[in-house]
UniProtKB/TrEMBL annotation:
GO molecular function, one term: carbamoyl-phosphate synthase (glutamine-hydrolyzing) activity
Subunit relationships: Composed of two chains; the small (or glutamine) chain promotes the hydrolysis of glutamine to ammonia, which is used by the large (or ammonia) chain to synthesize carbamoyl phosphate. Tetramer of heterodimers (alpha,beta)4.
E.C. code: 6.3.5.5
The protein's name in its UniProt record: Carbamoyl phosphate synthase small chain
Transmembrane segments: none
Length: 358
């Protein structure tokens, strides 16, 4: 294993060993406190442009499942067609793996997909630095190639445009209910949850004008980066809301785009929410749910229009976790109800959306 150094933008350095693809890389350094699920997280398009730090100390011990595709065209065990995270940073990489469904090691997968991985980092100390300072840009540099320094790009980049599909894709054609899904970087399990509820899913690019199409409901998917880079999508949502009261549901980036269409402002969280254990409360009730999350921006609920209200709030920091229209079937969640890889406390959001189309 070659010696590598993670250099944060404030000059802080962490020294470790390379176990993935051997190339320097730069991006936004974020942390995820989930205890498992690295195949799903690495293939989540919302991690595009980011160096993903896992706080759970042992990573890689259950290997990587095969990349197989279901009859509906969705990957069976991954959330997309490839790894989207720019790198993975762990404390202790397990070279030996054991799992009934594993076909290769994490290192083999990373090398095959040209994604760097570093181990031997005190990821909990790194997380403390990020929590105090906030997320920072960072670079992974190979110690024997000190002159080969990558350039980081994140702010001002439209990552949604990079990860969104480029043409219309249809799933479960002929189903009774038709759903237009705006692909901002959609996870496969979101599409699967809609298919399993008897919907035909019409997946369109993030900036596609779907307002003249025949459909029963509009679904706004998750995605990476800054929602303020997606004004084209917001204008189309506003156009759709002016034309029809058809149900609208959003997840993660979809929550932020719906909120922007409702007149709200978005702000960047200090270090974001990336985990499987974020507690949220449904507004107006004492019901709390454990949720899976992956986002760096949040809706400023105080700026919502008079016809809108909060649907969920985060119990840790009070930030917005979902909105709804007071009279129309338009609602969203900042967390992931499909939650692959877990938990599934809030999958009822899909049921509510499908019911609203009846």
């Amino acid at each position: 294993m070659r010696n590598v150094t993670l250099v944060l933008e404030d000059g802080t350095k962490f020294h470790g060993k390379s176990f993935g693809y051997e190339a320097p890389v730069a991006g936004e350094v974020v942390f995820n406190t989930a205890m498992m699920g690295y195949p799903e997280s690495l293939t989540d398009p919302s991690y595009a442009g980011q160096l993903m730090t896992l706080t759970y100390p042992l990573v890689g011990n259950y290997g990587v499942p095969p990349f197989t595709t279901e009859e509906n065209g969705l990957p069976t065990f991954m959330e997309s067609d490839k790894i989207y995270a720019s790198a993975i940073i762990v404390a202790d990489y397990s070279e030996q793996y054991c799992h009934w469904n594993a076909v290769e090691s994490l290192a083999e997968w990373l090398k095959r997909e040209h994604v760097p991985g570093i181990t031997g980092i005190d990821t909990r100390e790194l997380t403390k630095v990020l929590r105090e300072h906030g997320v920072m840009m960072g670079k992974i540099i190979f110690d024997d190639e000190p002159e080969n320094v990558p350039t980081a790009e994140y702010a001002g980049v439209n990552f949604v445009d990079k990860v969104s599909c480029k043409e219309i894709i249809r799933y479960n054609e002929g189903a009774k209910k038709k759903v237009v899904l705006v692909d901002c970087g959609v996870k496969a399990n979101i599409i699967r949850c809609l298919i399993n509820r008897g919907c035909e899913v019409i997946r369109v690019p993030w900036n596609y004008d779907y307002t003249d199409m025949e459909f029963d409901g509009l679904f706004l998917a998750n995605g990476p980066g800054d929602p303020d880079m997606c004004e084209a999508a917001v204008k189309i949502i506003q156009k759709q809301m002016s034309l029809s009261d058809k149900p609208i549901c959003g997840i993660c980036m979809g929550n932020q785009l719906l909120a922007k269409a409702a007149g709200a402002h978005i702000y960047k969280l200090k270090y974001g929410h990336r985990s499987h254990n974020q507690p949220v409360r449904m507004v107006g009730t004492e019901k709390c749910f454990v949720t899976s999350q992956n986002h760096g921006y949040a809706v400023d609920a105080k700026t919502l229009g008079a016809d809108w209200e909060e649907l969920f709030v985060n119990m840790n920091d009070g930030s917005n976790e979902g909105i709804r229209h007071k009279s129309k079937p338009w609602f969203s969640s900042q967390f992931h109800p499909e939650a692959c890889s877990g938990p599934v406390d809030t999958e009822f959001m899909f049921d509510k959306f499908v019911e609203a189309m009846n």
